[in-house]
Please model this.
Amino acid sequence: MEKARASRKTERKSAAARRAGMEPEALKATTDPENDSTARSASDGAGRSRQMRAMLALLAVTLIWGGTFLWMKQGVETTQDLFGPGAVTAGIGLFMVLRFGLAALLMPIVIPSSRRGLNFRVWWWGFLLGFLLLSGFHLQMFGLEGVSAPVSAFLTSLYVVFTALLSALLFRKGIGIFLWIGALLATFGAGYISGPPQLSFGLHEWLTVACAFLFAAHILAIDYCTKNAPPMPLTWTSFLCVALGSSVTLAVGIAGDPELQWGDMVTLTLHPGFWKPMLASSLLATLLALSLMNQFQREVPPVRAAILYAVEPVWAALMAVIWGNVQIDFWLVLGGVALLFGNLIAELGPLWKLARSVRGLGSKRTSK
Model:
């Protein structure tokens, strides 16, 4: 009975193929399971190639971000030197307004497609991305007022684990064992690269944990939004959101310091110790890095991207060593090695899957 059904099905396909002018060999190509396996293998290989290009672009993003901490620190120190510690909030607000405002101004000139296809969905999702980024930055900033740099680095690195948990809970996506191990190693490496954190949970620690949660939400939002809308318009609108939100921080900072005037912000802006790091942050860490991030992250699973982003402290530490601010020690090596192995282990999952697919195809051909 089954053979008769298969025979009739083949005859119907042959008749349809003759009506369409297909040769018997072409018909066989469309029904042969081996050809289906070959096509799937080729598709997997092409997808893997796109992922590798995307990961190289995202690795470049982490390299650029490695200098952001130094640039931001230079801006804050210049603010303190000119106007005292009470002006730091206003100085950070000004730094962020100029950083993202300049990037928003230049982006349509450098990338004309960023102004095309603007509709309600693009504006809404762009402002969502900007809000998550702005909120994460501010929580991290206020958290740093009460925790040390190693504690901040460790708690912020929890965004890798949060990304995995949120991905599993919200999108019902299973996280393979290789990704889980990679995420935990990356979290450990990013947290301990500056030394063991001394944790005693209080308000500022919880603010930093909330910052990590928002950074994880930002990574997942990029994955969803850039797959359903053009990435460059989303990037441009997110820049506008961060610039507008930071202007509120600037205004609050000036209002909170009776000795600070708006004219002082002009003086601060024109100081080389402020505008030079701000310009580097705007052109490299914002316009270039965030554009690359939004363009290429959609080619990489969110958890894998989060593990890769955790490499940023390695670049920051290496830059600090080059500038003579930090000496190479046990914790720097341990954290760097953990981050390296975390990323290598995270890569084993896709490579193992691809290898099994190739071996399966080879065994089918051998059996024939």
Remarks:
- Residues 16-31 have pLDDT under 50 and may be disordered.
- Residues 53-359 form one domain.
